[in-house]
Structure formats: C-alpha cells, structure tokens
Amino acid sequence: MESVGSIIMYLIIALAIIVFSVLAVTTRKILRSATYLLFTLFATAGIYFMMDYQFLGAVQIAVYAGGIVVLVVFSILLTSKPGDKAEKLASKRRAIGLLAAFAMLGVSGYALLSRCGFFAQLPAMGDVTMDQIGDQLLGTGQGGMLLPFEAISVLLLACIIGGIVVARKR
Amino acid sequence: MDITLMYYLIPSLVMFCCGVYGFITRKNMIAILISLELMLNAVDINFVVFNRFLFPGQLEGMFFTLFAIAIAAAETALAIAIIINIFRVAKNIDVRDLTKMKF
What we know:
The complex is a heterodimer.
Chain A: H1 4-26, H2 30-50, H3 54-79, H4 91-113, H5 130-137, H6 146-167
Chain B: H1 5-25, H2 29-54, H3 60-90
Helix pairs in contact in B: 1-2, 2-3
C-alpha cells in the first residue's frame, strides 16, 4: 500500500509524461515542441527520483534537460525564424504515422497487460550511495563497468572532434 | 492502490509511440531529432524501472541508462553539427528538399 502522497506524485508525473510527449510531436511550432520535450524530460527525472535513483535523476536533469535541450533550442533559433509554423500534414502521411503508432501501442500494450507476472510490488531497497556507484562504475569484478566507461570516453572524444570538423566553416 | 511495474511501463510505452509518430510525420530535421530523443528516453525509463522492480540492490540498469544518456548527448551534438552544416549549404533543413546526393 502506497502513501497518498506518492500516488498523487505518480499521477502528476504519468499525466505530464503522456500529455507533454503527445504535445511535443503534434504541435506545429518547433520551439514549443522543444519546450514540451523539456517538460517530458523533467517528468522522467521525477520517475528516477521516485525509483530512489537520485544520482540518475540529477544526471538526467543536468545532461538531458540542461545540455541537450539547450543545444536543440540553439539550433532551432539558428535555423528558423521565430513564429515559423510547420505546414499542415498531408492526411496520408498522418494516417501512416497514426497507423504505425497505434499498431505499436496496441500490440505492446496487449503484450504488457496480458502478463500478470509484471504486477510486482516496489521492493525495498537501501539508498544507493555514491560509494557503491563509483565502485561499480570503475570496477573490473562482478558487474563492473570499467570497459564501457572507457569506451564512452573514447566515443565522447570522437564526438567532440567530429562535431568540430563537421560544423567548422571552410 | 499499489503502484506496480505496469504503471510505469504504460507512460513509457505512450512516450515511445509518440516518438514513432513524430519520426514518421515530421519533416523538419530538428523535430525528427526531438522525436528520437523521446524514444530514447522511453527506453531509459524501462531500463531503470525493470532494474528497480526486479533486481533491487543491483545497479546494471542504472548504468545502462547512464551510458544511454551519454551516447544520446554525443549523438545529438553530432546530429546538430550536421544539421547546421546542411543549413549552411541548402538554406533549409526540410528532409524532402535534401535530395542533392540523389542521382
């Protein structure tokens, strides 16, 4: 049995995720779309906080909401005039999109709802300390993540160089 | 009322389907990128929720999400560099007009 507060919190977050993600793909102004994406990312960070992964929620807010959205907004402002609207969708294109989305929603939703085994209660878990996270992130033993960590660092370096080379003015 | 695993998977599923819809219907490249972010984010939620409900105390799902966020950031930065470059050449980022490399 959950407390009333956490149920209300959950309802707010779930509603925000659904409403804002629908708005993000249906609004015709691109800057608004980016703003709704920001709200969706914040709601996702809320889910991470509800799951007791505070570190992950902080990373989500700092990198996604703080980094990626700012980047997207900058590029929107660089490439389109304010007040620009996307033209109305052709009905065929919209029909194809709706068909794909609803087919996926139906199939996956049915598969989810027909498996009662997933109705698990939230198990108890102690707080994840930074000690634990650091040990496992840079560990080489059971469940250690050192190799992916190093691979990501190389990827980020490649991305930095690639970004400079691609966007540089010749 | 108990908040079970299902209650977290449904919003994430809706988010993913919105991403699919936007990816198919949008024509602006940045809007397509935004739809892509929605899909990536939905998958991240699934990783975290499954880890928390089925394997509490282990952190693999959380680390997968961390790495997914890092890769998403790298991918977005590079995609935006490409988009800006395309805009410089074609004065336009509409996917229908970018046919210069077709023959």
